[in-house]
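Continuing the batch. This is chain 6 of the set; chains 1 through 5 are on the previous pages. Same settings as before, nothing changed between runs. Recording input and output for traceability.
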Amino acid sequence: METRETRPSSDLPSVAKAYNGRDRNEFLFGWTPQAEIWNGRLAMIGFVAYLLWDLAGFSVLRDILRIVGY
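Output for chain 6:
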């Protein structure tokens, strides 16, 4: 037997709005708990991007240390 969902697919599940009745992944401007989540996500993306850039041979840190004399 096939079970069909009765709610529209655009509705968020009730768990997604557990924080003050709003979606935790929603973009809100200002000092909000969502800002800390987005800041962490973007920092992780930037860190991984720099590691990949460094592994590809375009190391800014290595070039600076070479200029300084280390």
